[in-house]
Hints:
Blueprint: H1 25-49, H2 68-71, H3 77-110, H4 116-128, H5 131-145, H6 151-175, H7 179-187, H8 192-220, H9 224-229, H10 236-243, H11 250-278
Amino acid sequence: xxxxxxxxxxxxxxxxxxxxxxxxxxxxxxxxxxxxxxxxxxxxxxxxxxxxxxxxxxxxxxxxxxxxxxxxxxxxxxxxxxxxxxxxxxxxxxxxxxxxxxxxxxxxxxxxxxxxxxxxxxxxxxxxxxxxxxxxxxxxxxxxxxxxxxxxxxxxxxxxxxxxxxxxxxxxxxxxxxxxxxxxxxxxxxxxxxxxxxxxxxxxxxxxxxxxxxxxxxxxxxxxxxxxxxxxxxxxxxxxxxxxxxxxxxxxxxxxxxxxxxxxxxxxxxxxxxxxxxx
Length: 279
């Protein structure tokens, strides 16, 4: 007796799932491009007018291409001294704020202690507070203490509002740090300082570098807090604002371009260094 087996019914073809948001991709791409263009347009205008062959104080009309302003970048002594003040202040602030903020970030990311919530609140409050409030508060402090305003009061003011940025950046890096690596180094005979220098610090270095760069950038372009505590010291933003009433010279655009390019180079180097360490 021959038995026949009925062929199994073929399963219906399952339609391939459509990728979520596939139809919206052109819209999102266009939206992203418009936002980036809006962000980069002022920078592009600044870079372009650094090459403007203008012969007046008003640098708002394109009159031709020239490299004259790059050749005579330091032709205005007051502007040059203001730029030097901004760069040296930003460098000092980045170093001091990093040294003071890094231990705070490490403590917030590693330990639980009484008052930790209050410290967190204080860090975020310092970032969220309006600059005019911080500037007025620091001005009142210097007046009450009888401290003459000038170069070092600007440094103190900038360090005060930059520390929270370093602390929060290092804290975010510290949360992802594996403490067993440091414990293993201690088990292998490394002392506390050696374990910190060879294990903990390299792990935190990207966060520390990011916080330092952020402090440098915030200090260079700060105007509001600086105007309250500068005294007779003139920084680059203060000089540009005072010159805007009569006309901003092309050297300002050139200096702004060089600062922007320098920041890109430093930030790109930091990203490449972090990726190389991760690989």
